[in-house]
Design goal:
- The structure is a single chain.
- By secondary structure, this protein is mainly alpha-helical.
- The chain contains 14 helices and two strands, in the order αααααααααααααββα.
- β1 and β2 form a beta hairpin.
- It is globular, with a radius of gyration of 24 Å.
- The protein starts with a helix and ends with a helix.
Amino acid sequence: MNQKQKNKLLDVFVYIVLALGALTMLLPFFWMISTSLKTPGEAVAMPPVWIPKFFQIENYKQALAAAPFGQYFLNSVIVTTASTLGELFTTILAAYAFARLEFYGKNFLFVLLISTMMVPGELLIIPNFVTLSNWNLINTYASLFLPYLASIFSIYILKEAFESVPDEVYYAAKVDGCSDWRYLWTVMVPLAKSSIVSIAILAIIGSWNSFIWPLIVTTEQSMRVLPVGLQAFTTEAGTQYELLMAASTIVVVPMIIIYIFLQKYIIEGLATGGSKG
């Protein structure tokens, strides 16, 4: 076997492994959509029914009627928009400060912030809840997005992207009388567009799928978000799996669509932000 044949064989092996990996990742989504179209008996049948005999489109109508999903959807949109815009604003300012400005203790402060990424998010739930409770913000939109207005990971990614811009560009702008504030928004932000878009997409997906925190800080049904609303299909009598999967499909599909169409920005942004030069 010559080298060319070995390379072809290796390529075939790689494609097979990638195909198996893709099928493994797609299987849960297929099962979710399949179950959402089943009858109650098919949803719990053993052995499992992979493809329902008749598509039960009515499951989606029943799922939407089981809870005020219109209000949940509006709440999710408001919270996702506020948290994403807030995170982008704080990330851009902090990343620029660490990348371009000189101040005492900059490197130490940045290392200190990066070290907080090792702290599990679950440890912050109680202090965040106590703080918001003392501020009388429980059951408000503010309680749903305030803890997510800053992301150390996003600051790190954007800082690397800002530092990849040559210093000569900054000096040329200063010679022309450009202020730091104007330089940030007219030069740095457009040049780091890919990283900013990727940060925004990841923030949108994370906020939209958030469950534990909204469940803790909201007790009124009018303040629930979509992932929390899925609890409506789990009762003491059991779980209505076909309705739960129908509602889950409604919640997940928008994020899947966003990711499919914008995945190149995520990959390009993380690749740009993760390396200098």
